[in-house]
Write a structure and sequence with these properties.
By secondary structure, the protein is α/β, with parallel strands linked by helices. The protein is 39% helix and 25% strand.
Length: 243
């Protein structure tokens, strides 16, 4: 579905990504692991068209999207849920969800969009209870659920999730990752950036490790979890937790 081939992205004269390559196959959850500043968010922004690389290519379903504007990439089936939620705080939950489907109005019509809002409420029951509430008054966990739900309203083939567990309580983190697995079951392919490497690898099929803008390791999630070097760097040492 997605192929990133030799991408280098700069901020001014600073190279944030250096010849990064990865693939995400249809139906997979693939996770990106790395420290702050490794280039994970930059890579998602490059894929979604928020940034354009200096070199390399981003290909979606065998179509180059490297320098397409972000809104066109959304129309092709990529939905980006950004770091720190970034919901529209002065709008209601329902208005946020409706805006998530803005690119579909002329194609699908309002009836289909309202039907999809009901489907989203089936996945995020708390949002239905809060649908007339201003998004800025929701808890952090509720805002994260709204951000994911808003991304789903574009009916994406591929969802880019940037740090969905950031700053959330452990029980809410468990719920977020449960939802991530439910999204995959419903047919959504996911590229997941996550500081909580252990939790990310539990739900992922494969993973890539970024360091200083380079891919330094990749493999199946189970293989990465068992790697001693990765355990020391990102998993807090060897874990006896079987869950």
């Amino acid at each position: 579905m997605l192929k990133v081939d030799g991408v280098s992205t700069f901020y001014g004269h600073i190279r944030a990504l250096d010849h990064v390559s990865l693939e995400v196959n249809d139906g997979e959850i693939v996770t990106l692991i790395g420290a702050n500043g490794a280039g994970k968010t930059t890579l998602l922004n490059t894929i979604s068209g928020m940034l354009h690389p200096k070199s390399g290519e981003v290909v979606l379903d065998n179509r180059a999207v490297t320098r397409m504007p972000a809104e066109q990439i959304v129309r092709l089936g990529v939905s980006h849920v950004p770091e720190r939620r970034q919901v529209f705080g002065s709008l209601t939950v329902l208005e946020n969800l409706t805006l998530g489907a803005y690119c579909r109005v002329s194609r699908d019509g309002w009836k289909a969009i309202y039907q999809d809002i009901e489907k989203v409420f089936g996945l995020f029951a708390i949002l239905e209870k809060r649908k007339e509430q201003l998004a800025g008054t929701l808890s952090g966990g509720e805002q994260q659920m709204l951000a994911v739900a808003r991304g789903l309203m574009a009916k994406p083939k591929l969802m880019l999730l940037d740090e969905p567990s950031l700053g959330l309580a452990p029980l809410i983190v468990q719920e977020i990752f449960r939802i991530v697995t439910e999204l995959r079951k419903s047919g959504t392919t996911i590229l997941l950036v996550e500081q909580n490497a252990r939790a990310a690898l539990r739900v992922a099929d494969r993973g890539y490790v970024l360091e200083n803008g380079h891919v330094v390791m990749s493999g199946k999630a189970a293989e990465l979890t068992a790697d001693e070097q990765l355990q020391k760097a990102y998993l807090g040492g060897r874990s006896n937790n079987k869950g």
